[in-house]
Amino acid sequence: MLSRLAFVLLVATALPACHGAATQTAAVPTAAGTTPIPPSGLRAIGNEPGWLVEVGAGDTPAMRLILDYGERRLDVAAAARLGDAGYRGTTADGVEVELRYRRETCSDGMSERDYPASVMLQVGAQTYRGCAEFRSP
C-alpha cells in the first residue's frame, strides 16, 4: 500500500506540467514491487480519495487504474472507445470501468493547474471525478 505522500509523488511524476514540457514516452516510475504504468493517450487524476488512470493509445487501449490513494489497483486489458467521449471495459475479475471526458478547462483543486478535460470515472458502483490531459505515445 502506498502512503499518501508516495501517492502524491507518483501523481506528480505521472502528470508533468504540459506547458512547454515534452511528451512523456517512457514508463512512469512507481513504488518498489509494482508494475510500471505504460505511456498513454490519456491521463486522468482526481482527489479525495486520490486516484490516477492511464489509458493507452490505439483502438482498444489498456487502462491502468490506481485508486483510493494507491490502495486499489485495477487493469482493463482492452477498453472500447466511446467515440470522442471516453472508454469502457471490464477487469479480469469482472469489474465494470467507464471513463468519460469532456473537453473543457478543469482544475484539480490542489495544484492550481488547468487541464484540457474534466472526467468522470465509474468503477463498479463507485464514481470518481477529476481532470485529464491527452498524450501522444
TrEMBL record:
Which range is the signal sequence, renumbered to this chain? Answer: 1-20
Give the highest taxon in the source lineage: Bacteria
Give the record's keywords alphabetically: Signal
Q: What is the protein's given name?
A: Lipoprotein
Originating species: Lysobacter firmicutimachus
